[in-house]
Each structure stands twice: as C-alpha cells, then as structure tokens.
Amino acid sequence: MRTIWGEQLRDNSILPEYPRPQLKRNSFLNLNGPWQFYMGPADEKPDRLPETILVPFSPESELSGILRKKRSGDILCYRRSFTLPEGFLRGRLLLHFGAVDLVATVFVNGRECGTHRGGYWPFSYDITDLIREKNVIEVNVEDDGAEANLDARGKQSDTPGGIWYTAQSGIWQTVWLESVPEQYISGLRVTPLFDKEAALIEVQTNVPGKCLIHLDGMIYAAAAGTAVHVPVENMRPWSPADPYLYRFSVTFGEDRVESYFGMRKCSMEKDERGVPKLFLNNRPLFHNGLLDQGYWPDGLYTAPAEAAMVCDIQTMKALGFNMLRKHIKIEPLRWYYLCDTMGMLVWQDMVSGGGPYKAGVVTVPVAGILPHRIDNGYKAFGRKSEGSRLRYYEELEETVKLLYNCPSIVMWVPFNEGWGQFDALEAVERIRALDSTRTIDHASGWHDQGGGDVFSRHVYFRKFRYKRDRGGRAAVLSEFGGYACGIEGHRWSKKDFGYKMFSGEKELTAGIVKLYDREIRPAKARGLSAAVYTQVSDVEEEINGLLTYDRQELKVEPDAIIAMNKRLMLED
Predict the structure, then answer these.
(1) How far is CA 475 from the centre of its chain?
(2) What φ, ψ does residue 507 adopt, rounded to 5°?
(3) What's the whole-model pTM score?
C-alpha cells in the first residue's frame, strides 16, 4: 500500500528539507537516497554489498526497496560514497544522523567514528580528520528486535497485530553533512518567560567564547553556556489561534545559525469556579485532541514526504482539533516545526520499553476492571531489569533535551497504560528538574500514582462519566473513541481492529458526533480539561482513524465534525 507521496517519490529528492529547523545553517549536504546495502549474518557479509536501499526508509518498509524483515542475529550494513562540493568545507565537517534503530557503528574511509545506541535520538560525529578527495561512509547496525528488554521500542512488534505494529530497523531519519568553522555553535536552549515578556536564551558552543543574539533589530551579547535574559517587546503570544514565532539568529565568530521560539505559558490552574484546568497563556484552554501514531503504510516510521506530515496536521486542524498526542514515538524535528508553525498543541509521550507486558497489568483495565497497582512492583510492570530502568531515565533526559525548544509541546507523558511503567513519581521529578515549563501526565490511562498535573483516564468500552480529582489535578480523558470503519481499497489487512464497528462514513460520523455531544460536551461543562480521540489515521490492522492508512480518504463528513467541534469549543 502506497500513499500519493510514496508514488511520487524520486531517488534524488527524498526528504530534502533541512532536518534541524531550530539550528539552521546554510551549509547542508543531504545524504538521503540510494545506498549500498546488506542484511544478513555478520560473518557472511560480502565485500561488495549486493542490494540498494533508499535511505532513510527502513528495510522492512516498501519505500526502502528491500521490503524484508530482519532476522534474529542479522546485521544491517549501509555504504555510500561522497565527494564534497568545491568550497563546501570551511573548517570542520560534521556527519549527522536523525535516528538509527538500534545500535549504529559508523566508519568513514575505513576508520571508526563511534557507536551510538538508541533508536529514536539524533547523533553526530566530527569527521574532518578522516576525509579525503573521495570518501566512503559505512554504517553497521545491530537491532536485537522489537521485543528487547533494555531499550525503548514503542509499538514495534515482531508479531504485529491489533494495536502493535510492524517492527523496523536501521536508518529511518535523514543523514546529512554540515560544514562549520573551527569554532561553532553546537546547540541552543530557549525558555519563554511569558509573565516577564522575555526569553532566556543559552548558546552552547564547542569552545568558550562570546556570542551575539540578533532579535527584532537588537543585538544581545552572551557568553557561551550562560543564559541571557532577552526582552520581547510588545509580546505576541503563541497559541493554536495565532501561532506566532519569533525568528532570531546567533553568531559566534564566523558561525551563524537561524532559529525561532514561541512565547507561551503552560500551566495547571483553577478557573473562576475553582475547577483545576489546563491553562495556556494564563487562560483555560480545552485541549481537543487526537491520538497520533506516526506510522505510514509505505514508510513505516518515516513519512514519505514532508507534505504527508503537513496533510495529517492540516486536516485535523481544519476539522477543528487543536492538539495531537504523539503516541509512543519521537518524530523528526521537522514534524514539531510544522506543529509550531501551524499552531497544533502536542502532548509528547516517552517511548515505552521494558520486558513483556502482563495482560492483567496493561490490558484488563481497558474493560473497566481497574486493579490499582503501586508501580514499584517492577516484575509485574516489565521492569525487573535494573539496566532497563536506568536506560529509561537516560532516554527520558535525551527526549526532553531534544524537544525542549519546541513551543507546540505543552505536555510530557512519561508512561502509558502501565507499559513498562515504574516509579512514575520519580519520573515526574526528573522531568521537572529538566523542564519546569510544561505540564505532565505521569500515568496515562491507569495505575495512577497521584502525581503530575492531570488525572488521566482512558475509556473505550463504557460511557464516560466525568470525575473530579480529589488531589486537585486537572481531569483529562487522554484516550477514548477508537470507532472503526474500513474503506474498501484502502485497508492494510483483511483483519480489522477497532473498539466499535461502523458500516460507512455516514454511520461513523453520526457515532462520533453522538459521542462528543452526549459525553464530552457535558463533561467539559463540568470541568474536563482535555479529550484525546483515537485516532488520526488507520494503522495496519487498526481501522479506527479519521483518515485511511494511505491518507487518501477522510472517513467522516467534514462539515459535521467541524460543527461538532465548534459546539465543543464554544466557550473557549
């Protein structure tokens, strides 16, 4: 099954956009496209790699040109040559990887650069001292499977079905080269101080020195590694209704980067009736959202084009939704940039991991049978391994640091439905230490430990009834709906999965409208702060999306959904 963007894909123009919008330079050489490839036992790897793969699509995906699952014990080997354009190198040469699943060892001209572990996070190497006139990059990847107990795996499964999806491996985000001066900017950390009409901007560099921040015609001096208080005159708040972004640049010697930030404030406060609510910019705002898995039928984890990601966000916003819950996946930074520019709130899940999940802990509660568990029972939650728990904290820190600057992200979700959950209150404290500017849903669904900013429930098989949290947190319905409707010619599988079946678009639309009008609107009137419908699109066997998996059909009547959301949001 292909999307329209997959059909139009060209080998020499695959995701050509600059991958890091908040640290953008003019120096950029995209390495996406055909690479030589081998997948098989390490001791049988030939000198000449026999296949061609389209990077950055994983070999399990159709768009990669391989469409084959990795077997246990296999390695993946990628190789491509490059020659630097004349005048490209101006000091140092950096090799960047958006994400590689799971353990990647990188070589340039036969010399090892390093090894990176973690399938969802970017990494880079300075390869200046390794390059020649003609160069070869080789990447060897090991992935011990979607059921590994140590690392985050999300919803990948070697035995996909229902809510679990095809596992992938290897390179799945953009690979690129960047030339920088000998002294260069390595990162930015921007914190909006909404109530003070200012921003804290910290510039990170590879060596100490003085930087200059250029914003709205003003220049502010900053020592590298020290946060500088930058006033924002006549502040224009960022919101879904007006996603205004402040563009700025930073110079450090000969280096220059472009970036942006949004002025917004996320908090949990009491409204005029004394009801705890989610606030944006000191005013209550109902988060009218959808679960967003980020899977594609032809690219799996990798969207076939940026236009495909735009389609998802734009379609949901046009229907009247203002939030997406990015579910158990970290997207490329371009996706968050689109949410920043288009005004879509984001709840960001941490990627789940741990050992095999027990049905009594993670599945039985969905039927309304809710045995409350304290989450220090590590074995029951699939976190018996101390190494797995320590690795989770490393991944949590990497995630918060990676996405800290994105104004669209307003909520962190460290655990979902008990999947590898442990010591959730500790996770809250760790997130607060890293980022005090966002709210936290510490245990989405069930196994609530009383922490975070929201009382978070998932309701699928029974009528939703609003409950106020005795602990004073805002009440949210963080998953519900999941109404299913299969469209002939747009199904991934002969098997269908959903929480309530409907026969066609008209019936599905009527069911959703009835659900919102009879359950969500009354709950909002009583104090509900957010509702997250399942989901944006079909995914493999799941046919409970508003869009088909190939994104070619909208399965609901748009005018009815728009009117439904207007009624819901009338008082905001």
Answers:
(1) 24
(2) -70, -40
(3) 0.97
